Amino acid sequence: ISICRDLPNIEVITFSVNGISDLEPLHQCQNLSELYLRKNNITSLDELFYLKTLPRLRVLWLAENPCCGPDPHRYRMTVLRNLPSLQKLDNQAVTEEELSQALVDGVEITAPPARRNVENGWSESTASSAAGSTTEPESELLTCSLEETNKTQEELDMKRVPRDKYSSFSPQETDCSCKKRNNVLNAILLLMKELDAEGLEIIQQTVARRLQAFQKKELQEE
């Protein structure tokens, strides 16, 4: 995420499922309008301090982070109190009633988090959540990988990936190769939004050649 310090004009960022815990690198991204941070390691809502300076931020997806805690209402109200310009939070539209209620139920964040010892009332929930994630059975990893790719495409308003495209993965591939493939795919999908027609045509031609090479290889193996 530190690369964002060198991308002040970036408008859409998808960093879901990346182990991110620090949002400080985002505070200079003044053109940022959509930020997807689902399933990271953000432990404190104090990290919102770095997003309060972003005037164009309208969409934030922060769900499934430890900072969401056991109280969904408190979490949502606190986010909206500090980021009242949001139009959508966690894929749910923000209403005027919620913004008004956030002034009452939300907690205002006035300082950045303390890095050495972050005070967080939901730390126990964080620990139990982290412990649970380490015991995920291998049989669920493929489903998780496919769901993450589809979630990223949903975030970017793109077509979902058919499950049969992943059906050939072996259990050995699932834990390493599949995750790597999934990350590469997510990055490509995001970068494609930045291309013009000429760039997309180059991508299309390159993909067509790659597909032909794979098909030729499969025929030879048969």
TrEMBL record:
Domain of life per record: Eukaryota
Protein name in UniProt: Cilia- and flagella-associated protein 410
Domain U2A'/phosphoprotein 32 family A C-terminal: 72-90
Stretches assigned to coiled coil: none
Biased composition (Low complexity): 123-140
Family matches, as InterPro entries: Leu-rich_rpt, Leu-rich_rpt_4, LRR_dom_sf, U2A'_phosphoprotein32A_C
GO (cellular component) term, any one: photoreceptor cell cilium
Subunit structure: Found in a complex with CFAP410, NEK1 and SPATA7. Interacts with NEK1.
Role according to the record: Plays a role in cilia formation and/or maintenance. Plays a role in the regulation of cell morphology and cytoskeletal organization. Involved in DNA damage repair.
Alphabetically ordered keywords of this record: Leucine-rich repeat, Repeat
GO biological process: cytoskeleton organization
Disordered: annotated segments: 115-140
SUPFAM superfamilies in alphabetical order: L domain-like (SSF52058)
